[in-house]
Amino acid sequence: MRGLWTTDRVRAAEERVMAVVPAGALMRRAAFGVAVVAAELLAGGRRVGLLVGAGNNGGDALWAGYYLRKRGVAVSAVLLTPDRVHAEGLAAFRRVGGRVVDRLADVDLVIDGIVGLSARGPLRPDAAEHVAHLDAPVLSVDLPSGIDPDTGATSGPAVRAHTTVTFGCLKPVHALADCGDVRLVDIGLAGELHGPDLVELDVADVGLAWPVPGPEDDKYTQGVTGIAAGSATYPGAAVLAAGAALLSTSGLVRYAGAAAEGVRARWPEAVCTGSVTDAGRVQAWVVGPGLGTGLGAEAVLRTVLEAGVPVCADADAITMLANNPDLWDARDPDTPLVLTPHDREYERLAGPVGDDRVTAARKAAERFNAVVLLKGHATVVAGPDGRVLVNRARSSWAATAGSGDVLSGVLGSLLAAGLDPVLAAGCAAKVHVLAAELAADGAPIPATSLLGAIPDAIRAVRPL
Ligand SMILES: NC(=O)C1=CN([C@@H]2O[C@H](COP(=O)(O)OP(=O)(O)OC[C@H]3O[C@@H](n4cnc5c(N)ncnc54)[C@H](OP(=O)(O)O)[C@@H]3O)[C@@H](O)[C@H]2O)[C@@H](O)CC1
Ligand SMILES: [K+]
To answer: Which NCBIfam families match (predicted)?
Structure first.
């Protein structure tokens, strides 16, 4: 489990530490960490270029240049705002023979000290011009310049980092955007940070939480998942969601709906009926994928929301809740509800997502008293209690038709097994992405392949 702290929290911690350590000490610790990683990345190379902006991020880069010069590396620096450069850093850099140049040429590695925690908006034109002409790998100081530190959003030119060296703690950008390989350097902030704003689960967290049968378990004790999905027109969504639930835990899966024949044919182990009213008891429902939005579908959603068990509402269920707010009344507010919108579904429910996906998920979670799993390259899970988990995919292989149906089935089975709904959503997102990566192995895949890789993904996260 990795914590992430927003820039406000980092600055507050930094101030408290700066009050008790000598001036400049934090910057030199940070810069030394950058220089160590730079030396490692240089391998046989001998020439480093610095892009230096107006603030302390640029100061870090200049001090890193100082330490590299002391190791005999040739270092040149472009000062993007010469009148506002970090004076001490520049003096130290010059003292050891660092060269100031107009343009970086023939370097083996670039250190990006354009902007850090104070970044607002994309790279400015002069910085963007320098970045566009780079052909060496880039080591970003704190974060890749041009990306927002708190939201991970990019609205124009930005640095593409091979590696990012950050200090004291991870910030939201490191989980929400591509920062390359992220290295954390300890500069002594830990004692002042307190609880994180966001959390990223690692495979060990997911593996430990994943429900597996114990010696006393049977098919009922592990939780029965109900799938209310699919229709005569869209039976595939039901087959995918039911299959995902079957492959994710050893509990029983009941399917209820118009695609019963198709589900039974593909998954003989599922107990299938035509209607949610005669489905029998379940410990959680998945409702929505391929269900349609007509009156019949509304009745299904109402029945499921009234059932008094946790519900994962996806796809058409979200659209129905957006179009017909009366449906919320069917819900028992004390029973967990997980909504799994993509951006367009979110917009129907709560307006445009905007650049700040974490705040968007948080707001909807609070407004609907539900766990909101906002799908995307970085999936954000927000709980009504304020907890937020993020999970960034390293690839886009999961972006394929039917992929969401699989996710809802996985999530539903974890709810049925009794996992805390925020954790269930975080674990489902992680295993879903991992299954896509394992199935794809470098080539596009349909959702059925993603589905088939769920057991491998679970094996990959489970402790030995
Ligand atoms: N916190 C810590 O624990 C430690 C922090 N340390 C370091 O300090 C860094 C934060 O430094 P900082 O606050 O001086 O600001 P920084 O990010 O260098 O920005 C400078 C100026 O750039 C400008 N600017 C804004 N957006 C821009 C854009 N898109 N493109 C171009 N320019 C842009 C804007 O000025 P403006 O031109 O708008 O007036 C802004 O004021 C932090 O990331 C870390 O590296 C470590 O040394 C020690 C431990
Ligand atoms: K930077």
So the answer is: yjeF_cterm (TIGR00196), yjeF_nterm (TIGR00197)
Q: Write the pLDDT tens digit of every residue in 380-396.
A: 999 999 999 999 998 89
Do 443 and 324 belong to one domain? yes
Q: What CATH number has the domain bearing residue 389?
A: 3.40.1190.20
Look-up of token digits 């499921």: 304
**Which atom of ligand 1 has the smallest separation from the CA of 115?**
17
Query: What pTM, to 2 d.p., does this model score?
Result: 0.96
320: containing domain: 203-461
State percent of the chain over pLDDT 70.
Answer: 100
Q: How far is CA 91 from the centre of its chain?
A: 40
> Of the residues 196, 226, 251, which one is the last residue of a structural domain?
196
Where b means 16+ CB within 10 Å and e means fewer, 82-116 reads eeebbeebbebbbeeebeeeeebeebbbbbbbbbb
Structure tokens given for 247 = 């492959």
Contact 111, 132 (CB under 8 A): no
Q: Are residues 151 and 70 in the same domain?
A: yes
Domain identity same for 278 and 177: no
Residue 112 CA, ligand 2 centroid: distance in Å: 5
How are strands ordered across the β-sheet holding 74-79?
99-100, 74-79, 47-52, 109-113, 138-141, 163-167, 181-185
Q: What is the CATH number of the domain that holds 165?
A: 3.40.50.10260
Alpha-carbon span 313 to 381, nearest angstrom: 14
Say if residue 146 is in the same domain as residue 6. Answer: yes
> Can you tell me the ipTM of this complex?
0.97
Annotated binding residues for (6S)-NADPHX, as ranges?
A: 56-60, 116-122, 142, 237, 290, 342, 405
